[in-house]
Each structure stands twice: as C-alpha cells, then as structure tokens.
Design a protein that fits this description.
The chain has 556 residues and is of the alpha/beta class. Helices cover 30% and strands 22% of the residues. The protein is globular.
Length: 556
C-alpha cells in the first residue's frame, strides 16, 4: 500500500486532497459532458477544481516574517488512470423498502410459480417461530403465468401461519388463507375506493390491489426499530456498492425518518437522502410548517410530499382513458378524488413543500396535469412539480410538462421490464407517449432518472444502457422498442446526475462535480463514454466517495 493511500486512510472526516491521474467525466451546469485529469478537493469535502491534466504541486513560497508555511494537501491519490464520474443519483426509490427486501423473503429472482412456492416453503422451514412470513418481489408476468396467483397456491407452500407477499411494484399483495382470516376479510368484504379484491367463486382469491392492500396490512406486524436500522444499513451498503451516492426517498414515513436520523446521529448515514413524505400526516409530523433544512452536512432533508394517484400496469391498477386491451371493462384505479388531490397539493404548496405525484396511466397523467395547471395560478415561482413515472402520457399533452415547469421523474429500467407487458395491456396504437424520454427532452422538460428500487435493481448502469438503447438485458427487441425515444449517453448521464439533483432542489449542493459542490464521485472500471451500451451494463464500481471521503472500495 502506498504512503499516499495510507495517509488517505488516516485522514479526518474532511481533509483537502487530490485524486490524480484519472479519466475524469462529469457534466457541466448545462448538462454537457466535460473531461478532466485530476479532482482537487477542499477541506470541507467539496470540489475545489477540475484540473484538465495531471495535478502539479504549486511552488511553496517561503512565508514572510510572522507568517506560517501555507497548508499543503492532506492526501494525494494516484488513481492509475481509472475513470472517475460523479456519484450517481437515484431520483426515485424507496430506501426502507429496499432495505427490508434485503432482510425478508425476496421473490424477485423466481422465474415460475413453482420456483416461488419452493422458495417460500424453504424460507418458512428455515425461519421457524415466526408469527408471519413477510416478503416482496413476486411478478406473475415474469413467471409467464398469465394471471394472478391464488391463496390456494400460497397455501400449498405454507398454510399454518399467515403469509403476506407484496408484488414487485408494491401495488398488489398476495395473501394465503391464514392471512385472509387474520385480516377478517370475507366474501362480504368490500374493497375501499382506489382498491380491488380479486375474487374467485364469490370469495377472496388471495390478491389485493392498491388500496385494498390495507385490508391485510393493517394486521401485519410492522418492522421493529432495530429491524429498520439493520435494513437501512443493508440498503446503504448495497447502494454504495452500485454507485448510488444520493437518492430521492419517495414515501418517507415517520418510522423511516426516525431510522434515518438514528443512523445520522451515529455518523453512519453515508448516502444522501432527499425525502418526500408519505402523505400529509407524515409531512406535518416530520417537517412541521415548512421543509426541513439540509441536515448532517447535506445528507438528509425532507423537502416534499409524495402522493399516489393511480396503480401500476402490471396489476392493471394504472388509470387509463380507455379499457385495458387485455381486460375489457377495466380502466384501472383513481386513488385520489379530483377535489382531494387539489386540496392535498394545495396544503403542501402553501407551506412551500415540493409536490411529487405518482402517475402511470394516461388518465392519471391528464388529471395531474389539470391539477398542476389550476394550482399554478395560485402558487408561483420555482415549484418544480414532479410527475413520478409519467409512463403513459397522451402525446398531445406532452407540451404541458414544459408549460408548467414540471420535472419528469422516470425510470429507464421500467421500459426494459415492461415493454412486452405494456403492449399487451395497452395495444401498440396507444403507446406513442409511453416511456417517452426523448419527447420529454424535445419539449425541454427536465428529465430525472431513477430505478424505483426495490421494484427494480438500483444499479444505475443498466439504466444508462436502457436509456440509450431501449433494449432489455437480452438485447431485445433488437434496435430498441420505440427507438425514436432513445437518448444520448450525455442525456442519460445527465439524468442520473445533474437533473436528478435538480429534481430535488439539490443542484447547488451535489450532483455534477461543479466547484463548490460536495465531492461525491465514483472510480469505475471502464470509460462509459466510449463503451458499448451492452458493456455499460456490466460496469463495476471500484470506489465510492461521498463528501471527499471514501465510503466503499471493491474487495474491502
């Protein structure tokens, strides 16, 4: 180990230094790619300078009488020509949901119902003594099932204790018979507004969609604080390993916030969290009369409100203007009445909270655009209204995003996972405004990219590749699905850095490696500006740095 590296490891939390001999790639204030050879970091953990070539030690002048010698750098790291890029930002994720998925039953890797049943059965046998089995990640589309699974099929794996498993998108839950009984759900039970109970033979079939999930979750034991602490640490380790240095947490509860604060109080919160409250009650309880200040050296802030207007395509909960092509008579679910939506948004806007609203279907996006238009007449200034997902938009309404200064918060990996299913749900003719990244850019709409973790992997490199190709991991469809919506490498990197920070009112603090911003960056194993998209997918993060301090090193 070099002397320079030993000095680095011994450096205090904030120390001035230089990362030299890098293939530096960043984005400037206009989103254009810039290149540099060394990164100079000041003693506050901020970017002092991007140096075009190698770092040259400035000559040290002998001090005048009564003055001390000028302070030199605390450390110097020769990166050996590795590629250095800004820390990547996930503009839409669920931090605690991701962490809990890492410590509970995860079905996201199962490829059939039988495989899922076997994994559930094995988990129950290994975790004896549990009063409930909780899990996530199932996807009937991935199983090729062509329908939802049933309570009876879950009973075949575990029948003696309640089992509750959330679908990969979090918009449906699968319960066994014991869980249905524990929840008191019967053939006479009615789904709440914005929800649906799947029925079979006049009885609950085991699937609860969107708001109907509450019928079961109200009796599911919540995670204990110590479990949340473990989950948060697991989530951070995984995010840092994959190059995520900041994330917008969409739907923060008071229990989540307390876990974030406990971690930060211990000095263990490394990932920067831009928090959006799960509904008005959590917003007021956590932040009070206005957004919180940035806390813990720009590691945590609650700046906004998260609302959910409709469901997801996979569970046919996305709210559409016309019937689902594969389910005549169904148009999805509107989860917030029009007047209530405007009242909730107004309540947050009057106290200067940013508003982020989940809208997937074309009807949901249209309704949200109408609400934003109305509220924009009252609430002026830089609001940065956020539309989360914006998956299916009527092409005629795309100009409205620019008109009202809306941020489109979109997840490229959803397109790769969904294109076959979206075609089945909607029919090709209704998809001209689907996952329309290039159209958003053409309309000068800020485009912030994320993953929706744990719905998808938080790994941003497949997200960059998908944004550039519209192809999935197998290279399908060749040439990309709706290839006219592909974006350039520069736009993809911008979406995961500068624009993701802008979406959270954080662009002056981190995101682009502009001098004065926090020195959050990655050292990676390849030049992603030159690599083929298929090779970008497999990029390995060698080191992750936050605030000028290394927080992850591969193999250590």
């Amino acid at each position: 180990m070099s002397v320079a590296l030993l000095a680095l490891l011994a450096a205090p939390a904030f120390a001035s230094g230089v990362i030299d001999n890098v293939n530096g790639i960043a984005v400037d204030a206009n989103g254009r790619v810039v290149h540099f050879g060394a990164l100079l970091i000041d003693d506050e953990g901020k970017v002092a300078q991007l140096i075009p070539g190698r770092y040259q030690e400035p000559p040290r002048k002998k001090p005048k009488k009564g003055e001390s010698w000028p302070k030199g750098l605390d450390y110097k790291l020769d990166a050996g020509g590795k590629t250095l890029i800004p820390g990547l930002i996930d503009a839409h994720g669920h931090v605690m949901g991701y962490g809990l998925s890492l410590i509970t039953l995860d079905l996201s890797d199962t490829r059939s119902l039988a495989e899922a049943q076997a994994k559930i059965r094995a988990y129950a046998q290994a975790e004896t003594g549990r009063k409930w089995i909780i899990g996530t990640g199932w996807n009937q589309e991935q199983w090729g099932l062509g329908r939802f699974p049933t309570a009876a099929e879950l009973d075949a794996a575990v029948s003696d204790i309640p089992v509750w498993l959330e679908r990969v998108d979090g918009h449906a839950g699968w319960a066994n018979s014991a869980a249905i009984r524990a929840a008191g759900v019967t053939a006479a039970s009615k789904a709440p507004a914005g929800g649906r109970i799947e029925m079979a033979g006049g009885r609950p079939a085991g699937i609860f969609v969107d708001q109907a999930m509450d019928l079961v979750t109200k009796v599911v034991p919540p995670p204990a604080p110590k479990d949340r602490d473990i989950a948060l640490e697991k989530a951070q380790q995984a995010l840092l390993r994959q190059g995520i240095t900041a994330i917008a947490d969409m739907g923060t509860s008071i229990a989540d916030w307390q876990a974030f604060r406990r971690s930060a109080d211990r000095g263990a919160l490394r990932v920067r969290i831009m928090s959006y409250a799960a509904g008005l009650d959590n917003m007021v309880l956590i932040a009070g009369p206005e957004p919180t200040p940035w806390l813990y050296d720009d590691h945590l802030r609650m700046g906004g409100l998260k609302l959910v207007l409709d469901g997801a395509l996979g569970s046919r909960g996305a709210w559409l203007k016309a019937d689902y092509a594969d389910a005549p008579g169904q148009r999805g679910l509107s989860m917030i009445p029009a007047t209530s939506l405007r009242n909730m948004m107004s309540r947050a806007a009057m106290d200067n909270f940013q508003i982020a609203v989940h809208a997937i279907g074309d009807a949901a996006n249209s309704e949200l655009l109408d609400a934003i238009q109305e509220l924009s007449e009252t609430y002026k200034g830089d609001r940065r209204w956020r539309v989360e997902h914006a998956q299916i938009v009527d092409p005629a309404e795309l100009p409205r995003f620019e008109q009202f200064g809306i941020v489109a918060s979109m997840q490229p990996v959803h397109e790769a996972s969904d294109w076959r299913m979206a075609t089945a749900r909607m029919g090709a003719a209704r998809l001209r405004g689907a996952y329309a990244w290039k159209s958003m850019l053409d309309h000068r709409v800020p485009l912030a990219f994320g993953s929706d973790v744990p719905v998808e992997s938080p790994n941003p490199f497949p997200g960059i590749a998908v944004a550039m190709t519209r192809e999935d991991a197998k290279g399908d469809p060749v040439g990309g699905w709706m290839p006219e919506q592909r974006v350039s490498f520069e736009a993809a990197l911008d979406g995961f850095t500068r624009q993701a920070a802008f979406a959270g009112f954080a662009e002056k603090r981190f995101g682009s490696l502009i001098p004065g911003q926090r020195a959050d960056f990655l050292l990676i194993d390849r030049d992603i500006s030159l690599a083929r998209p298929a090779d970008i997918r497999t990029t390995q993060v060698m080191e992750t740095w936050i605030g000028g301090k290394r927080v992850f090193m591969k193999g250590k």
